[in-house]
Amino acid sequence: MGAHSVFLILVCVIGTAIVVHGQGQAGFISIDCGSPPNINYVDTDTGISYTWDAPFIKSGVNVNVSEEYGYPKNPVLPFPLADVRSFPQGNRNCYSLTPSDGKGNLYLIRASFMYGNYDGDNALPEFDLYVDVNFWTSVTFRNASENVIKEILSFAESETVYVCLVNKGKGTPFISALELRPMNSSIYGTEFGRNVSLVLYQRLDTGYLNGTGRYQKDVYDRIWSPYSPASWKSTMTNGYIDIFQSGYKPPDEVIKTAASPKSDDEPLELSWTSDDPNARFYAYLYFAELENLKRNESRKIRIFWNGSPVSGAFNPSSEYSMTVSNSRAFTGKDHWISVQKTSDSTLPPILNAIEIFSAQSLDEFSTTTEDVRAIESIKSTYKLQKVWSGDPCSPSLFPWEGIRCSYNNSSHQIKSLNLSSSGLHGPIAFSFRNLSNLESLDLSNNSLKGFVPDFLADLKLLKYLNLKGNNFTGYIPRSLRKRSVDDGLVLSVDEQNICHSRSCRDRSRILVPIVVSTLVVVLIAALVVICILRRERKIRAYSGPLLPSGKRRFTYSEVSSITNNFNKVIGKGGFGIVYLGSLEDGTEIAVKMINDSSFGKSKGSSSSSSSSSSRVSKEFQVEAELLLTVHHRNLASFVGYCDDGRSMALIYEYMANGNLQDYLSSENAEDLSWEKRLHIAIDSAQGLEYLHHGCRPPIVHRDVKTANILLNDNLEAKIADFGLSKVFPEDDLSHVVTAVMGTPGYVDPEYYNTFKLNEKSDVYSFGIVLLELITGRRSIMKTDDGDKMNVVHFVEPFIDFGDIDGVVDARLRGDFSSNSAWKFVEVAMSCVRDRGTNRPTMNQIVSDLKQCLAAELGREPRSHHEKEACLIPITQLKV
Ligand SMILES: *[C@@H]1O[C@H](CO)[C@@H](O)[C@H](O)[C@H]1NC(C)=O
Ligand SMILES: *[C@@H]1O[C@H](CO)[C@@H](O)[C@H](O)[C@H]1NC(C)=O
Ligand SMILES: *[C@@H]1O[C@H](CO)[C@@H](O)[C@H](O)[C@H]1NC(C)=O
Ligand SMILES: *[C@@H]1O[C@H](CO)[C@@H](O)[C@H](O)[C@H]1NC(C)=O
Ligand SMILES: *[C@@H]1O[C@H](CO)[C@@H](O)[C@H](O)[C@H]1NC(C)=O
Ligand SMILES: *[C@@H]1O[C@H](CO)[C@@H](O)[C@H](O)[C@H]1NC(C)=O
Ligand SMILES: *[C@@H]1O[C@H](CO)[C@@H](O)[C@H](O)[C@H]1NC(C)=O
Ligand SMILES: *[C@@H]1O[C@H](CO)[C@@H](O)[C@H](O)[C@H]1NC(C)=O
Ligand SMILES: *[C@@H]1O[C@H](CO)[C@@H](O)[C@H](O)[C@H]1NC(C)=O
Ligand SMILES: *[C@@H]1O[C@H](CO)[C@@H](O)[C@H](O)[C@H]1NC(C)=O
């Protein structure tokens, strides 16, 4: 028993029955979709007042059904079906219903559809319905005159209930009528409470004789369909049955007729098959005794589902209607309900009415209210002519046009908004700032004007911002430019909003005094800070026992001492953590501890010393000793190494300005001129050139990247981390290795196919480094789709369009020789050619880069004032 569904018997107490006959149509929303403007009428068949639909929806077009199906040829056509609203535009169109009972209550929503060849295409469409963000049902037609009616019982989650028609590519959605009725929220309970909606499967008036079974008879305006199979007979009563005892309130005419089996010992049976084996059904059965039972007569009933007894026996009351329902869902494909008399019952079973619903889970989430509020405000501010209705992000297959969202298990967020060519005018609305999850914003090709607001920089996740093709005045605020430097924000703006020398000139005169005085203050402050930092660093570096310089092989405890017990981390690389250290003579050094599971790096721990692999250690020693013989001014000096069986470490000279990757994404890069960038490029090219062509045997670096190019005090570049490169024999320039080496974004594509690394692989990686230098971007950047984009793909379109300004880092503010930049891009692109054999050698690259430098040095010098004026953020320009 326990495993079977348990029936709830809602027994009702007889009380002082106050018969409140219908509050009329209070709370009803009855819409004749597609009707002519300002039409309100009472349908003579039902007595229901219909209104036109424009107040409930902004999109779609009104059309009459074709002559063949409409008036006057078809005089019995219900009035609401004579016209439809169809939705050729947008894939989700929603009616907004605002029930007067407000949110949290249960509503019956009914949508009616008759195709009637309204579009003259004679093609039956198929589309989906949603209530708010949740799937309701699919609408399909058997023929053009079929009146398809869909009904759902649903709790309103908010003040507005959206009923959405979704175009799934199988014809244009349309609708004939839409109705909403307030229900008693205490009825139609399920084991899931308010977490499910009930989609009507069947509502049957069993034992039907006559009547409409609808509004005026039914306070909730349910539609009861007559049902009388041949093996059933009908009985009725003229006596009084109290239908108001429970909240279900079945209509009098429905409850006053009942079906019973023609042959007294037979049960009443109903069966159906579900397409969905996981469907969950709830049945609500209505009973009332219609006969005057004699003393020796009794009617006792039990209900079975799929052959299992699932209710206790009960006697229908002759005084009131009772409703019996399953508290656990009927699940499975095949369903068979049987209403039987008990063995001690003298009379056959009866059934007055039955409703069967399938449960629809409410498992979609909505967009966060902040995002909804912001996007609605944008929509109304700019009076957008878009099919934007219902929830912006949900259902996830059909978000609003131009919107993309992130979906997770709580609520959805708008992460991308494309309002390109959407007729926006006026200033950028503040509401954009409230879309706090935005990663991509495309406002291009509108008529926006005014200043570019700096609140856009508050959008912390923004990675892409396109403002091109508008009428903005002034320049891009510093805060935004800073974002493009620090966070890799891809900023597309019009020429006149970029701070170029010419456009800045007219403002420069007034601004110079402010700029100069500000700069002086900043400079002094900076100098003071630098001096303090210098002193602090010296003091720290000299503490602890020191080691003699000139030594090359160190023990773990020496390394620990050099680094003052691993006191200061200055970097984290692919191989391990880098610590600052200092030799006896005060030379600052960088100690890179090599990560290896068998080499515990933790301070003082003397754990797994014996378990270290001697093979790894041996290879490491051989390489380290060899590297000690490699010297070039553009290679980071290798001071020594540590390999005492417990730890492996590489010890380099310390480079004050860190690595190029960090430098390019720091505040410092603001002052990194084109000329300085060219010097860095040439320095690193020379370092690689030496490894490839100056060493015997040649050394392939195998991990060339901006993070492995270090900058000293004077911004001279040195290549680092070739310590872990493989040394190749001279006669075998390409070498097969098995594990994938290198860093994503820099790896030679040819390597993936051949697993061969050679000098040309380094050349490919170096091409990426050059592109990072000129664009100021990372080798792999994120696009607005959340997809990753290689810097090569980023620059390609600009190169195709001959747009060098699009390629060059905005922080240079146009201050570069375009000849030099073009030449540089050419060199970089030749390095990243698909086939290694088509790439230049490092010799060639060094000489080409020197030409770039010559071109830059040969151009007209610029005035100082123009540069400074560019630093002033837009907000100050207004003063
Ligand atoms: C539909 O028919 C009605 C009356 O027959 C007419 O007044 C109305 O203009 C028609 N609507 C459309 C969209 O053609
Ligand atoms: C259209 O389909 C409905 C439902 O199957 C059916 O009752 C009706 O007779 C059909 N009408 C025509 C004209 O085929
Ligand atoms: C139904 O929703 C309530 C919260 O509204 C939740 O506490 C409950 O666990 C849910 N029940 C089921 C069966 O999902
Ligand atoms: C319905 O049927 C009953 C019994 O046959 C009859 O008395 C009653 O007048 C009928 N009502 C209508 C509206 O036809
Ligand atoms: C709603 O239904 C409940 C339970 O059946 C009942 O107690 C209550 O009186 C009903 N409310 C209304 C307004 O009918
Ligand atoms: C009940 O009693 C009546 C006489 O009052 C009799 O005619 C009828 O057969 C009895 N029915 C049963 C089931 O015993
Ligand atoms: C889902 O989004 C919410 C709202 O931002 C966030 O707090 C939560 O961490 C996200 N959950 C997952 C699993 O991503
Ligand atoms: C949501 O949760 C379900 C089950 O917990 C999991 O299978 C699914 O991947 C989650 N979806 C997201 C977007 O986090
Ligand atoms: C925005 O939409 C336009 C076309 O409507 C498209 O050209 C453009 O690439 C889109 N922008 C983004 C960032 O996807
Ligand atoms: C921009 O402003 C200029 C001058 O005010 C005007 O001629 C032009 O039409 C405007 N462009 C747009 C796209 O609004």
Percent range for β-strand residues: 25-35%
**Which secondary-structure class do the elements indicate?**
alpha+beta
Distinct small molecules = 2-acetamido-2-deoxy-beta-D-glucopyranose
Write down the domain tally: 5
Shape, principal axes of CA atoms: elongated
Helix content estimate: 10-25%
Question: Architecture of the largest domain in CATH?
Answer: Orthogonal Bundle
Q: Gap between N and C termini, in Å?
A: 82 Å
CATH superfamily of the largest domain: Transferase(Phosphotransferase) domain 1
Report the uncertain regions. Answer: 1-23, 500-549, 597-612, 727-740, 863-879
Per CATH, the class of the largest domain reads Mainly Alpha
Report on the biggest sheet: 11 strands, mixed
Count helical runs.
Answer: 16
Catalytic activity: L-seryl-[protein] + ATP = O-phospho-L-seryl-[protein] + ADP + H(+); L-threonyl-[protein] + ATP = O-phospho-L-threonyl-[protein] + ADP + H(+)
Membrane topology: Single-pass membrane protein
Pfam families: LRR_8, Malectin_like, PK_Tyr_Ser-Thr
EC number: 2.7.11.1
Explain the overall architecture.
The chain has 879 residues and is of the alpha+beta class. The chain folds into five domains: 3-185, Sandwich (Jelly Rolls), CATH 2.60.120; 198-361, Jelly Rolls, CATH 2.60.120.430; 369-506, Alpha-Beta Horseshoe (Leucine-rich repeat, LRR (right-handed beta-alpha superhelix)); 552-653, Phosphorylase Kinase, domain 1; 660-869, Transferase(Phosphotransferase), domain 1, CATH 1.10.510. Helices cover 22% and strands 25% of the residues. Strands 1, 2, 8, 11, 14, 15, 16, 20, 23, 24 and 26 form an eleven-stranded mixed beta sheet that branches.
